[in-house]
């Protein structure tokens, strides 16, 4: 994902040359006293097991073969920890995930700040196997662990004025070297319409592959919205705010023509720079690996299509 020629961008993409990126990374690494060649060993350390029962929700268990753990944890987008796919696996290991709190507020009767321990016990943990498709044209299949975001939202009792939900993620310069690259307006912010946020498939995830979330995948908790492009699934959440107006999102602010508020996976509506008609499944590399056709709503049309009846999906991309 790369916002080009956006007025809100502090550094135009055209000026971020590979050379400049390399230099920036070298400076960061020396500042952190980390060898530039540090292997992914720390990243490979597996997390604590997280018990969960398989979900019975329609659409929650896709039958495709899950992506290899190694690939799912070493090919990441998490710009707070660098722009290259292999950087979060190294850089995110310094993220402190305890103590951790999530503030849930805005248009609700019982705003509350939840501690991580409390969140882990708030509802039964389920395992769900979801496709995740990035707008860049690749996809993965990941066995996530968590519960429906709706479980948390109903605890704070949204008012009648609540129409949208804003998600804010951690932005801490001391822990996140990527924040010094002004690619986005930090903190990373995302949003959903309230009915999307309350849809049972919208997952508040604490783990994957039977373990707590690796840091590069959004520890200690993230959103997973399987029928939307990957960037809607915000990592390392610190605040969830119910609002009466459509919230601004980081990607929408950076490049409004490229990243709309809805961002539903839709093979018929291309991104200005990338076709969305097909995708490469991570792990299925090699010269002869076929691209897969991208499915409407990422294959979840039966479950979520009715949320958009009557909407012009070209206009509301
Ligand atoms: N806070 C934060 N969340 C984020 C991102 C990010 O840069 N920062 N990248 C998004 C994008 S573009 C994608 S495709 C997914 C990738 O999730 P994964 O690394 O677990 O596959 O995370 C999303 N969530
Ligand atoms: Mo993405």
From TrEMBL:
Its EC number is 1.8.5.-. Binds 1 Mo-molybdopterin (Mo-MPT) cofactor per subunit. It catalyses: L-methionyl-[protein] + a quinone + H2O = L-methionyl-(R)-S-oxide-[protein] + a quinol; L-methionyl-[protein] + a quinone + H2O = L-methionyl-(S)-S-oxide-[protein] + a quinol. GO terms for biological process: protein repair. Pfam families: Oxidored_molyb. Coiled coil: none annotated. Its cofactor is Mo-molybdopterin. Mo-molybdopterin binds at residues 76, 79-80, 134, 169, 217, 222, 233-235. InterPro entries: MsrP, OxRdtase_Mopterin-bd_dom, OxRdtase_Mopterin-bd_sf. Keywords: Metal-binding, Molybdenum, Oxidoreductase, Signal. Residues 95-251 form the Oxidoreductase molybdopterin-binding domain. HAMAP family: MsrP. Heterodimer of a catalytic subunit (MsrP) and a heme-binding subunit (MsrQ). Belongs to the MsrP family. This is Protein-methionine-sulfoxide reductase catalytic subunit MsrP. It comes from Inhella proteolytica. The gene is msrP.
């Amino acid at each position: 994902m790369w916002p080009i020629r956006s007025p809100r961008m502090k550094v135009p993409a055209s000026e971020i040359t590979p050379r400049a990126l390399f230099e920036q990374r070298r400076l960061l690494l020396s500042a952190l006293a980390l060898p530039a060649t540090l292997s992914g060993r720390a990243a490979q350390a597996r997390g604590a097991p997280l018990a969960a029962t398989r979900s019975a929700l329609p659409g929650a268990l896709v039958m495709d073969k899950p992506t290899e753990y190694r690939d799912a944890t070493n090919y990441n987008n998490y710009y707070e920890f660098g722009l290259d796919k292999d950087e979060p696996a190294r850089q995110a290991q310094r993220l402190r995930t305890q103590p951790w709190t999530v503030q849930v507020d805005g248009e609700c009767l019982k705003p509350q700040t939840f501690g991580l321990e409390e969140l882990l016990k708030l509802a039964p943990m389920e395992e769900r196997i979801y496709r995740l498709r990035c707008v860049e044209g690749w996809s993965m299949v990941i066995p996530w662990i968590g519960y429906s975001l709706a479980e948390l939202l109903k605890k704070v009792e949204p008012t009648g004025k609540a129409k949208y939900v804003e998600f804010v993620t951690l932005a801490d310069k001391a822990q996140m070297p990527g924040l010094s690259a002004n690619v986005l307006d930090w903190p990373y912010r995302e949003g959903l319409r309230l009915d999307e946020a309350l849809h049972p498939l919208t997952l508040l995830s604490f783990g994957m592959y039977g373990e707590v979330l690796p840091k590069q995948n959004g520890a200690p908790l993230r959103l997973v919205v399987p029928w939307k492009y990957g960037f809607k699934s915000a990592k390392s959440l610190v605040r969830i705010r119910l609002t009466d107006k459509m919230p601004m999102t980081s990607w929408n602010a950076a490049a409004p023509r490229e990243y709309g508020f809805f961002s539903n996976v839709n093979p018929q509506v291309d991104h200005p720079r990338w076709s969305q008609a097909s995708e490469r499944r991570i792990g299925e590399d090699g010269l002869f690996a076929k691209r897969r056709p991208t499915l409407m709503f990422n294959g979840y049309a039966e479950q979520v299509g009715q949320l958009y009846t009557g909407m012009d999906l070209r206009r509301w991309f």
